[in-house]
Write a structure and sequence with these properties.
Layout lengths: L1 H16 L3 H17 L3 H16 L6 H21 L6 H13 L7 H9 L6 H10 L2 H15 L3
Length: 154
């Protein structure tokens, strides 16, 4: 009897430590909900961190949802540039953000490509990041479209 109880307790402990694979997708979908209904920076930041933790625990997460999460993360990072304009680390952060936005991974986001094109011939990464800092919602629409594509799958 003691062996059976020990086995049950061990199984319960393993189940408690096993990540819920749908949790990451739900957290990313929740980001879509809050960004379409209005959100403050602090709320977005907390939700993005929560979604990242859940996504890191879910090896089965759809690649489109992973990309949508990256869009939310980069928009949150850019928004932070605007909130803390005197932070001495901002230039370095803006270069990182801008380089990501100029990479192939973001080429499918039409609003971002239009924003980059509006900046002139070949804007610097920091200029691109500062543009996004003024309109972080540009990436939210692309993330929402990626989420919708995953929901349309049979």
């Amino acid at each position: 009897m003691k062996q059976m109880i020990a086995t049950i307790l061990f199984a319960l402990a393993v189940v408690a430590q096993t990540p819920e694979y749908g949790a990451a997708a739900n957290a990313i979908k929740a980001l879509r909900s809050v960004t379409t209904s209005g959100v403050q920076y602090r709320q977005l930041s907390d939700r993005v961190l929560e979604a990242r933790v859940k996504a890191d625990q879910d090896p089965t997460l759809d690649p489109k949802l992973k990309l949508a999460l990256k869009y939310y993360e980069i928009s949150e990072n850019a928004w932070n540039l605007r909130i803390a304009p005197r932070d001495p680390q901002n230039y370095a952060r803006s270069v990182v953000i801008g380089n990501k936005l100029l990479s192939a991974e973001y080429q499918t986001c039409k609003p971002i490509q239009e924003m980059i094109a509006s900046a002139g011939k070949k804007p610097s990464p920091s200029v691109v990041a500062q543009l996004l800092a003024q309109r972080p919602n540009l990436l939210w629409s692309c993330a929402a479209a990626l989420i919708a594509e995953t929901e349309a799958k049979p």
